[in-house]
């Protein structure tokens, strides 16, 4: 099933479930907070293990691709020559940065605005997303780097992908 559709289903189900959860009970609230923290620790662990696998393989195969100009920019797309090892490390840094941005936004929403419902949803969706990342599929789940998993990978759909422009094309 398409990951976006399963995310939508999870969000709808969890929104309904969160209406029935008594977040005003401190024990329940602390339990959901703990679930969110454990979820993010698992994601960090998966990404750290992925980094260890990238460093262990240290694939120095040359990779050439065209990096698109950022959306709204007048810059021209530029040709990039790198190694698979370097490319994978760059992609992993992007995943870590995105996860930290999500945690930061969730902290502001929860601690500053006292909004608790997203804690439950954000305990599940990012964890699911971490295992759907191409890096994790290739380095941890053992999928072959061919077809859709052939580098360079297309930019993510949605807001993050829009900010990077269209997908990257191999030279």
TrEMBL record:
Pfam families: Pho88. One of its GO terms (cellular component) is mitochondrion. Keywords: Membrane, Transmembrane, Transmembrane helix. The keyword DNA-binding does not apply. InterPro entries: SND3_fun. One of its GO terms (biological process) is protein targeting to ER. It comes from the Eukaryota. The chain crosses the membrane at residues 32-50. This is Inorganic phosphate transport PHO88. It comes from Hortaea werneckii.
